[in-house]
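Deliverable D4.2, example record:
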Amino acid sequence: MINMYKIDKNVIVYRENGEILLINMKTNKFFALDEISTYVWERIAKVGKVDDIIHDLGRRFPEAKHEIQRDVDLFISSLVSEKIINKRGRIL
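Output generated by the structure prediction step:
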């Protein structure tokens, strides 16, 4: 099963000079994203499938496959806990 996510309706995405700042207007929490987290964020916004994101990063950085899984899971968990993204559901 694949977890799917969507951006919370209260989140504003601010982009400037290749950097992204995510602001939840309801909680006043924000995230400043680095290059890799920006890549993950953009993939969540387009596709929402975490397994696809991990697979793509694993192809780009094959030597760090285990770290990628852990880091993406931690990043996704922090976005969910801060109500930046919401679980959309699971697909088979």
